[in-house]
## 1
Amino acid sequence: MSNKPYKGFEPKWLLTPAPEGSYRSIFRWGDPEFFKYPKESLYNLMKETFKMTDDDFKDYTDDIGFDQVDLSEYPSKLAKKHVDALKKIVGDAFVTTEDYPRLAVAYGCTGYDLLRLRHKQIENVPDAVVYPDTTAQVEDIVAYCVKNKIPLYVYGGGSSVTRGMEAVKGGVTLDMRKRFNKVISFNEVDQTITVQAGMSGPKLEETLNNAQSIFGAKRAYTCGHFPQSFEYSSVGGWTVTRGAGQNSSYYGTIADIVLSQKYATPIGRIQTSHYPREATGPNLNQIMMGSEGTFGVLTEVTLKVFRYMPENRKRFSYMFKDWKTAMEAAREMMQCECGFSSVFRLSDPEETHLMLKLYNVDETPLEPILDKLGYRDMERCMFLGFTDGEKGFSRNVAKNIAKIALQHGGFPMTGYVTKSWEKGRFNDPYLRDTLMDFSIITDTLECTVNWSNMEQVHRDVRKVCHALPNTVVTTHMSHCYPQGANLYFIFITKMNDADEFKRYHTTILDAIQKSGAAISHHHGIGKMFAPWLEGYIGEKEYGVFKTLKNYFDPDYMMNPGGTIGLDLKPEEKKFLNERKDYR
Amino acid sequence: MSNKPYKGFEPKWLLTPAPEGSYRSIFRWGDPEFFKYPKESLYNLMKETFKMTDDDFKDYTDDIGFDQVDLSEYPSKLAKKHVDALKKIVGDAFVTTEDYPRLAVAYGCTGYDLLRLRHKQIENVPDAVVYPDTTAQVEDIVAYCVKNKIPLYVYGGGSSVTRGMEAVKGGVTLDMRKRFNKVISFNEVDQTITVQAGMSGPKLEETLNNAQSIFGAKRAYTCGHFPQSFEYSSVGGWTVTRGAGQNSSYYGTIADIVLSQKYATPIGRIQTSHYPREATGPNLNQIMMGSEGTFGVLTEVTLKVFRYMPENRKRFSYMFKDWKTAMEAAREMMQCECGFSSVFRLSDPEETHLMLKLYNVDETPLEPILDKLGYRDMERCMFLGFTDGEKGFSRNVAKNIAKIALQHGGFPMTGYVTKSWEKGRFNDPYLRDTLMDFSIITDTLECTVNWSNMEQVHRDVRKVCHALPNTVVTTHMSHCYPQGANLYFIFITKMNDADEFKRYHTTILDAIQKSGAAISHHHGIGKMFAPWLEGYIGEKEYGVFKTLKNYFDPDYMMNPGGTIGLDLKPEEKKFLNERKDYR
């Protein structure tokens, strides 16, 4: 990352690629050659916020994880006959019990995961990693594992923030990245593509953008699904967790984009139908999405695709005077039926404060102008986004957004802020790694809130966060709908102990639950949010999930150990007697 | 209905209101004072098609059902203690075992139902009818019926075309029309309304249109859901069958419009969550929708509402030269991302032929002009619709539709045709009653088809229909999506025997199934389509429905007797080995 040189002291930012085979190569995000660190004003803000000095940034808090992964204390317990049997299914080269590949698929990306890996707290690793190539192979593996009572996990892109794929019972993890990432078919007439579940975001998008040369298509397409984790996420992960991309206000969440799915389950292949709508009983697509690997392994997904028309994109950004007015403007934009913009992101005052530094607006003449016009720091709210779709549609959305923003006292900030946001949208996780070397940890929690409950959830959750020590919490609203939106909390704190962090994280999560919001808009449940799920859904309602589990996987071999709470003990569950119900 | 006087012989159209308490008052559609009969050119077409003469229209084929309902041969079998217990729950006046109210809720509106009623083929009537007032009462009734093994059915609006609510096991039918039709709450901030399940379409729409005076709202709203059965359909029926309104291309089907639901099930109250999207496991809303009363009784529904802006509506209609070109234009309109029109209806050549007569276009100078320009009868295809939404959005959709229509050789037919369609959109069922007096019966079947399969399904189904004796079959595409659309077949034949009609109906349904279409887009499954469902969904996939049934209603007391196939015997099921799979 290119950055202006610091005027004062510059911390010992770690800008050396992690050695192959090292712990760091696992816990750091993405591209080994890419680094990101804060600019000086942000660095100064952090020192101030967390009461740190330059001295705290002279050396790393801990071991930076450059040593080679060593799991000699955690040897594979999978019997040789099983390893051999799995090799017979996928080929000798595609089953391994070696240390590095086992640890490489053991953890996701929540703060708890990263802290454990940094401290070599190896709690859960699979005994073997298998790299399937075909749907038939996955089906054979599922059948074999169930028959032999071997727990089975799936690693898609590795960006889970819910401990969704953590192999807490050992057994086998399918690593989908290596081979299970192929296009199965492309149908331009129906505008659909069918892919293996391990297909990565960037490979899918590149394929669709180049549909003309690859498939002889008439035009280029886009997948429309761009989560922040895009570069290291998979279609399978998107689907089973009910993910949402940052452009979801226009394209929909993955639950809207998926047309059909194929699963390898203990009771055999499950194939959902592939029609845009039907009236044929309960919707099987919507039953399988959200199962997070507990009903079986997702093998193939048919996705809707969209026309790739970046030339029609209209960028916008506005500053509002306060959160209440900004929320009202956002709601009007969502309810006025002018069509939806693609990215739609409204930051609260605390996030706006940080963003203006992050995007260098604090160094431009805009800052004093905003002040003068009454858009005051720690009150003002930044709103940004862009439109997609056909030219006239896109223009009409932007036009209405402008009109509504102005009616609500929004100050036009030009496309510059949006472009700055776009630059960082997929690489913020790199900054997180750099800061963690000095015990500054960033994590996120998010939830769905309806409009009439928005102000209260925002207030309640922030109140709890600010009562925690050393906490910066920024919030934005994104993934918006006529009935509500996602509230996304980013919290930054100074902390280094995994268990302490887990307790901290739990406190905030508890606050979200009690506020009456939906427990997750798009991160899913995994093992981390599972204790709250039954309390959120309701006991009889949750019984539906158990019933489905018992149908598909009566031996509990599919992603066992707490995912979506199916095999939690009663004492591991939290019930939300204090939960607000605003209806 | 005002009509021009016939020049020639005018049939003895029945234009006398059916007496209160008569059979006819049950089997005829809607408003007792409203009648509709064909204009002369259509009458002549029918005579020609069905090889009938004026003599056939001199008198009715059968008894017209003016006599009083008499179920003395089918007395109520419900023990007095049960009747008394039910009265204790809802009040003495709201439980009845009398003949008329029992027969009034026994049948729906498929041709088989109407023919049976016309011939007094009383096969299935409930033993008692209960008129609940509150959700608590419904919950008590469900608990009582389950405890005492009394089958429980629900009658919402009575417009089922799938025998969905037919009380084949006797027992109790809840008639929701009388009292279970109230607004529970209205939330203008979230743009939602919560209603009891028996709320009728017109009452809901009237309430929303008058939200300002009723709720003190800032503006007027619309429900956005207008099935042809609108005037005699209920929110509960829409929801449990996964219905779609004629404006669904813009507003979505009911599965898109419903935000949350409450059910009284044998295991207790089930309340789904009420957020626009969430990532909290399988989607319970989508599990309950489509259950068609077999998991429990739907009590309350929260629906999204939309701004009522009829002033923004743009009507359009175009004539295309042939079905293939018309389909291509329709697909481009759906895939170009300009937004969707509200009504979007494309008729095939045979339907176009009939429509031009129905809307009197055959009597205007347009007819020879169309011929001259190469839009030939029985080749040309009529396309019509209108837009909704914010002014600029609506205009942009209409503009793009115009552009694409012209690119595909569409000839603008002005808003006249659309307005004619609008006039008849909710009252065509009256015409059906009038014609049935002379053994001319109309019925419909519909299915979802993806674009790449559209031509084949249309061809295959029509081929089978045309091999049947005396059959007119018209087809239109409506409820359209980027990936496909609903194909709606209307067939008209000369037939009077219920069982003969059932066999006839089965033949067409079989053809739809074999063609590879989705078995139903929005009519649901009921008892009529149930034999095909497992074959369509797949055996293991269908097992999910059975599993859910066993969870909610292990004693099979909720809408028992074949609905969605849950308690069908193996020999009653049809399997579709011949089914095409075009993927």
Note: The mean pLDDT of chain B is 95.
## 2
Amino acid sequence: MTASLQDLARLVRYYILISTTEAGTGHPTSSLSAVDLTTALFFKYLKADLDRPEHPNNDRVIFSKGHAAPLLYALYGAAGVLTESELKSLRKLGSPLQGHPTPQFRYAEAATGSLGQGLSIGVGMALNGKNLDQLPYRTYVLLGDGEMAEGSVWEAAQIASYYKLDNLIAIVDVNRLGQSQETMYGHDTEAYSKRLAAFGWDVVTIDGHSLPEIEKAFEQCFAVNGRPKVIVAKTLKGAGVSFLADKAGWHGKALSAADLEKALKELGPVDTKLKGSVQKPEDKKPATTAPVDVPPPAYKKGDAVATRKAYGMALARLIDKYPNLVSIDAETKNSTFAEILMEKKKDHYFEMFIAEQNMIGVGVGFARRGKVPFASTFAAFLTRAYDQIRMAAVSEANLKCVGSHVGVSIGEDGPSQMGLEDIAMFRAVHGSTVLYPSDAVSTEYLVEELIKTSGIGYLRTSRPATPVLYDVGEKFPVGGSKVLRSSAKDRLTLVAAGVTLHESLKAADQLSKDGLAVRVIDCYSVKPIDAATLRKAAEETKLMMVVEDHWEEGGLGDAVLSALAEKPVASVVKVAVRIMPGSGKPEELVEQAGLSAAALIRKIKEILK
Amino acid sequence: MTASLQDLARLVRYYILISTTEAGTGHPTSSLSAVDLTTALFFKYLKADLDRPEHPNNDRVIFSKGHAAPLLYALYGAAGVLTESELKSLRKLGSPLQGHPTPQFRYAEAATGSLGQGLSIGVGMALNGKNLDQLPYRTYVLLGDGEMAEGSVWEAAQIASYYKLDNLIAIVDVNRLGQSQETMYGHDTEAYSKRLAAFGWDVVTIDGHSLPEIEKAFEQCFAVNGRPKVIVAKTLKGAGVSFLADKAGWHGKALSAADLEKALKELGPVDTKLKGSVQKPEDKKPATTAPVDVPPPAYKKGDAVATRKAYGMALARLIDKYPNLVSIDAETKNSTFAEILMEKKKDHYFEMFIAEQNMIGVGVGFARRGKVPFASTFAAFLTRAYDQIRMAAVSEANLKCVGSHVGVSIGEDGPSQMGLEDIAMFRAVHGSTVLYPSDAVSTEYLVEELIKTSGIGYLRTSRPATPVLYDVGEKFPVGGSKVLRSSAKDRLTLVAAGVTLHESLKAADQLSKDGLAVRVIDCYSVKPIDAATLRKAAEETKLMMVVEDHWEEGGLGDAVLSALAEKPVASVVKVAVRIMPGSGKPEELVEQAGLSAAALIRKIKEILK
């Protein structure tokens, strides 16, 4: 006999309550409000092979309200794939059942818990299903009412309707109560419904505790084509337990043993032998393209090519070899040169418009479905999505970010458009790879290195055209560097990348004519950094100058210092941007910031005199 | 005779065209689309004393579409306060007329240019006018259609309607064309109007080149009470010049000399002697409260008090001395303890709900109107607003950010809630002050230091209760530190702050019993850092260990290295979080990350053996 949804919902509530009380911490009430909605979803509509969470045909379920993790785990408990004792490991050291979902839990599609990010991830997964894999899976996203205040939700909402994602179904759990007070709209579900309708969604507004209404709502969602769908559900936080339901003061609090006993009594007997069954999905193969070899990049030494342009060239060249590449951009594709990929392979480019947070979330969605997304915009504007990038690392997403227009060398547009903190930002992302090419050849190879290196990757590209420095045969491994000027008589080492490398080379060549030997290192791999080469140079020259078009904090200078920290053998001078730049010609601003060859020569002569 | 709006609009167009062509760069077409809208605003409705841009009764005008800076400058040119030759300094080195508005231009209310931020700043200014200064000034915000894709705009929109800001008037310049392609909705003004109406705004939809429609729209706005108002205007990018108007391919391009000649011919003769007059505002005094002395903080050494709680206590204590203090929080006030201020002085607390980007923008608005806003949430979630924080520095805003729940020591909630990159992020903000107290007394004094230190300030607070270390009489100047353990025999210096300071003290005391002397420095001022004290310790002990509950990049460790860089005399070991933490008890996670006293003792013994 099939278990009834009512019985399963009661079991799910039981698991939520016992696991949070066992943990002594967690969010039982925020979980309880969505029990009926998700129990109906899981055990009547969801199609997923629970033995194969990675199955490409599985429907995807994202808990954007990540603090409802006890509910997520409880649902899998009710489905029979987690035991009661496993559920009771909630929030304990080493348990995959963390306070908020992470990939440590095998059924979590992504890490959530920083609110307002799940819908973007869902958009990425839905876009992947519809446009890339061409599979009929659906993507479900559970949102809390509180997180609807996050702008990123509305960025995702607009893109979902722009791309007509009718395979995306959102559920908004309007339980009225936030962390410290009532939400902006309380139980006024209409406030959400009319906003979502205005954003192009098909909306069903229901009582989120009425199973007949819930079932009708899902069925209405399945009947609509051409638009994303949302179920806006009025619920009670803590629903199912009278002394919790719709009561303030219970956010993020586990019940005491005594309260638990009271709650369980009220819940009535549950059958822990009960097992809800989840439908299996179809077994359709995703659409794929076979990889083919591609020619090496073609540039001549000395040609002037901006690294941002080489980035676009690289994507377009490499997509045949790596058919899982996807390019997304925040309406800057003619500046970042993502447009070169778009022009070559339109169906692997997705315009994300001026909404960087959602762009990164969509990238996480693609990455978690096996694609290699490159998300590009001005480096300055990637700061907009730092929370999403940080969370992408928790999601273990294989996401590549590309920031163009870095530093004062962009010129006239002024400080709002200058990426001056991007290295600091990406260095402090767990497990990140931070690469900063100085010419077209290294850019091309470093793009491929990023594809081959899993995790969060960052490529820093520059606006100005700079001369090609390397032969096409050169290798650029992650963690490497290139010593471009070197002699036994070097009295100082210049460490640089991007425009400052070119200034450093000019300075070294001029100083060499004046009889002063200076080593120059192209430090294209900022993280991991080539500690061995830097140490050797430090030991041999005893004096280093790290030159970067970035604020003085957290950038290449700090990375070099960090590499030398435990055995410091050289004095290290950081040359970086220290005053707020304005508008001006690139060369004027580079000079003003003390990053020009002339400025470096003056500084070196002063130090060495 | 008063100049007609038509003649003034023609003059404004002339200034836009000649200034951008003179610069050889810039955004003439994005400026031209909004000429008629803003000319009517400036010369018929705006109330501002142009001799006193700081006048508290002036209406505020914010160009959220900052790339329309040439229009902003041209309007002031037409108002007679900028000469043609000054206008021609656009985008030149040292000119206050930068590519995007910054406070270098005396009439700019804030820096813009990173899109989608202006409405939040406007919300801050409107809230200030209505609720704090209680002045009748209006705040006008010009937005582009492209930037309506930014979620932060919708965060601002919902808060404006929540606070019934009927002194706020937005103008959306729907010119259809973005940077690289058409916007999501092209000329479908209804798409914007219905969304804004759903978000609670009073909407007028018009032809943005019809002066009668524009005038009617403003007058309709003034007639509505209790809601923010928006004029959604269909315009042509490049309007007024036939070969530019509504044509793709002209984004961000100045006209050549030949094209300029053609354009000016078409524009017809302009009278550069024409001067538009702007109405003067009333002369009402802002509501103020006289400052009164407050008692010092009251804690006893050894009491267990979380620094986050001391932060709330400090705000509540100091508001009488600094009546310009304002507290804003992203629905975490019972965690950050901003609620202590709210409970004491409700009208100086503004709930910003779960929308961090808008919270920071609102803070910039308050700051630019002379308030000292403290914006608080979990440190992890401040990453959400990094772009706004970066831009706040360009705005020269006196904004204070407070991030609670830092590091692994928060425990069970897991990595999504742990601030592990906040120091890296805030160090790399221009002119920032980064403070990291370890006990309640220093927290209280550091809050006051932040009030007294202009610019972007950051206070890092912790979740766990920790013992009070200092007497209430102690001083904590910015740029200082405290040497808490010291002897002539010290063989190593531990540098720490927050929970790791307490672990370091325990480690040093234990090691001291074992006969091993270790110095301990409370490095409460991360930026600026106390280089002299660190250098002395480095020279005397030759070995330092920097211990921080933060990723290893960009944090306290890098700050210490940077302070010692030019004369490295000690080996510096960074002890920081290196693996992705999960859930667990705070003490388990601190131990797992190698930050516990026991772990430090093991590491120190190993190094010194």
Note: The CA atoms of residues 97 and 409 of chain B lie 47 Å apart.
## 3
Amino acid sequence: MGELVKVAVDAMGGDFAPVEPVKGAVEAVNENQGIFVYLVGKEDVVNAELSKYTYPKDRIQVVHASQVIETGEPPVSAIRGKKDSSIVVSMNMIRHGEADAFVSSGSTGAVLVGGQVIVGRVKGVERPPLAPLIPTEKGASLLIDCGANVDARASHLAQFAAMGSIYMEQVIGVKNPRVAIVNIGMEEEKGNALVKETFPLLKANKNINFIGSIEARDIPKGTADVIVCEAFVGNVILKLYEGVGATLIKKVKSGMMSTMRSKIGALLVKPALKTTLKSFDSSQYGGAPLLGLKGLVVKTHGSSKALEFKNSILQCIQFKNGQISEKIKEHIADNVAPAEER
Amino acid sequence: MGELVKVAVDAMGGDFAPVEPVKGAVEAVNENQGIFVYLVGKEDVVNAELSKYTYPKDRIQVVHASQVIETGEPPVSAIRGKKDSSIVVSMNMIRHGEADAFVSSGSTGAVLVGGQVIVGRVKGVERPPLAPLIPTEKGASLLIDCGANVDARASHLAQFAAMGSIYMEQVIGVKNPRVAIVNIGMEEEKGNALVKETFPLLKANKNINFIGSIEARDIPKGTADVIVCEAFVGNVILKLYEGVGATLIKKVKSGMMSTMRSKIGALLVKPALKTTLKSFDSSQYGGAPLLGLKGLVVKTHGSSKALEFKNSILQCIQFKNGQISEKIKEHIADNVAPAEER
């Protein structure tokens, strides 16, 4: 066994803290001997929760942080003002080399701002994108950027494509991942000003497998592995995925309950259906990495349960062993450096 | 019975022309005595198709157009070059007052360009948006703009909101429709530059019932009746709706077929499920109007069947009787005129 991968977990963030992050941390260390978890939050609260479980005591340590950043708080002033919050304390641990990664389901804004100002960007990276995996018919695709940088420029999107490609290959294990840009048509001349400016930059990058435009209707089919878009569009895609899915499942359920005949059928169908629909549930993939930082920062859903925390923690192993930050640094130095000099 | 509503139908446009547009036209005149249809296209082809049906001969007339604009053709040169195409001939009929409306499932680009340059905009309207109805849990919402104007400005979006509101109230019959802008958070300070600039314009318009931002995840819940967004985002929403829906239905079907037990259940569930899922099928609503023109132009899906043509044709009655173009003209003159003077 090599060196332990040290993950700081925000024990105070999200709708179900501290119960679910603590449970997820325990499950992660019990499942994988290569993981060490720092549970960051109010000591007494976290210890009380942790005392319910059996786990290797030498691989979970509670780190006290007296403050909590709430979801509604303006991110910049929260990060500046609450120096002893679980988010700021955890990020400082990455900065000082005490932790390799940070997993939080707390305020997205605070995690994004903290990632940039405390953990810091890899040299040459203009904007760090948030990149969740979304379920498709064939498995999962990386949606990048998904809320970190609205009104991004073409050079930013070109870097997103490169970083997403490295992540998908090294962490998720997709060989030569297909990279596509979200567009409103398949032809090269289609699109808005941003897409038209980005398209040739992606085409010119010989280190990525750029396959051209992808229309939104083809995203769920899994025709691309890395789906590049500006953050506003990415956020709409992520949330609509969730919304249409929830509404359709509700429709299917109410349809099954509408007649006596269908109610009997529903009982027979239910177990098989549950298994299939689970493959279309994004929580199985863990959280979304914020790429291009000097350490790994993973944002999980606000409503994350233990499974998502566990998967997010385990994901940090591939990230560290794959040397993602180092590879992003090399790639950016090789390819996108000229953009910096403009 | 009042005056007949005269609808020109593109008999050559779409994947299933001339079969489906001709069938839809016949069904429309058979169902509603207030409709008169001009079937525009190659005379011999259309007549051959039409001869298969029984219908009131005095309410369908074939109008010859020797050319067809293909989907792949660059729209501007197609409209300029093919003066005797079904699209150009039909639009000239609106321009000259011979038809009230035009229904086409041909090239979207050509329909948009033709609408602007041949039918012409209502005075004061800066950009005519394409506004399809999308299914929700509660019925349907109008998504505006959905592909006509990428890189739109805030003043355009403000007009879309007003036009969409008039259409939803007068044609679809929703009293005091709730208008929302697509955003990546609910707070007023969230959003990209365009949304931040548009928000106060919508808030200031006392003639619409503006309820603020809507996140993409809430669109399928039907929490707003008129959903305002820029065309690139609208196009992504429309197509992702379709894509996620198709993939999930496929998953449900394969889940049902995965075990012997579930196969039996599927037989019992199927009829009830079919009825429920039909309520989430957008083709029942007919096509998308291109608003803000001097006459009505309706774009239906390229893959439209007779039902969608029929519904699109019947929709023209409310549009004409509701005097939508006149109401848009009045509203624009009242409210958005200052934007013109900038």
Note: Residues 337-342 of chain A have pLDDT under 50 and may be disordered.
